[in-house]
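Structure (tokenized):
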């Protein structure tokens, strides 16, 4: 069953607009979460806000948002004051610019959302915008307020829908050359390069979501199931076949490549 809409508003291009909904394209609902529990009673422990100076609990009615200034003081805001600075982009995705789809590097992409028309009347306008972007191989750039923060967003046609990506701000992306600049451009010995190429070919396969499963979550689920049984114990960890990372470097790179290829060939047989 599809998840409920996270956001409802309008997709706008000049005078063309249509009502749309937006839903997160990813989920962490399967992630195992732990609570802090009182060991003696087995009940959950609640957290409360306390005054940093007196240590006394603060009533919920007295809790407000505060911005700390350089002199250590706080400028406080009520909910109504924060709502007063709401922008038009709170409810409208107004496409301001288009750029070539291949020109935005992956590192700028933050969180993906599915954008879909919210009624039959708006489907035609939605489809026209989507198909025109696909034909021109461009993506749209707009702005949208999410959690009281205006974000630059990218709209990418995908199948019958549109994927909206929030974009990282310019000061959030570090310059790659500051880290890669001192790395030597050497390609390595041709023989070693061929061996690595062979190893890559042996390990190549079609993409599948199974490639990004979380074994730690599986281990936790098994541990929880064992704990629920009376006197149950956690399953023993299986011994690893490979040498642990960070071991001795006495073995040469050539020997390591030969051993890797031999191991891959044995597994294939």
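Design, position by position:
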């Amino acid at each position: 069953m599809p998840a409920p809409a996270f956001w409802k508003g309008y997709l706008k291009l000049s005078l063309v607009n249509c009502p749309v909904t937006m839903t997160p394209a990813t989920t962490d609902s399967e992630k195992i979460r732990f609570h802090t529990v009182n060991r003696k009673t087995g009940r959950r422990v609640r957290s409360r806000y306390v005054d940093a100076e007196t240590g006394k609990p603060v009533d919920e009615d007295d809790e407000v948002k505060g911005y700390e200034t350089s002199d250590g003081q706080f400028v406080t805001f009520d909910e109504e004051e924060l709502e007063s600075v709401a922008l038009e982009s709170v409810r409208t995705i107004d496409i301001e610019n288009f750029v070539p789809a291949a020109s935005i590097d992956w590192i700028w992409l933050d969180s993906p959302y599915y954008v879909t028309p919210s009624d039959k009347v708006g489907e035609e306008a939605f489809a026209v915008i989507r198909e025109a972007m696909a034909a021109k191989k461009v993506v749209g750039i707009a702005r949208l307020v999410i959690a009281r923060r205006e974000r630059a967003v990218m709209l990418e046609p995908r199948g019958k829908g549109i994927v909206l990506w929030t974009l990282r701000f310019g000061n959030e992306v570090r310059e790659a050359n500051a880290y890669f600049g001192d790395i030597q451009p050497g390609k390595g010995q041709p023989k070693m390069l061929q061996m690595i190429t062979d190893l890559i070919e042996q390990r190549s396969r079609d993409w599948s979501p199974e490639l990004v499963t979380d074994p730690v979550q599986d281990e936790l689920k098994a541990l929880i199931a064992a704990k629920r049984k009376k006197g149950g114990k956690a399953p023993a960890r299986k011994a690893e076949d490979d040498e642990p990372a960070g071991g001795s470097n006495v073995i040469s790179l050539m020997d390591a490549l030969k051993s890797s290829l031999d191991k891959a060939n044995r597994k294939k047989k």
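Reviewer-requested clarification: Residues 243-250 have pLDDT under 50 and may be disordered. Residues 187-204+211-235+248-268 form one domain.
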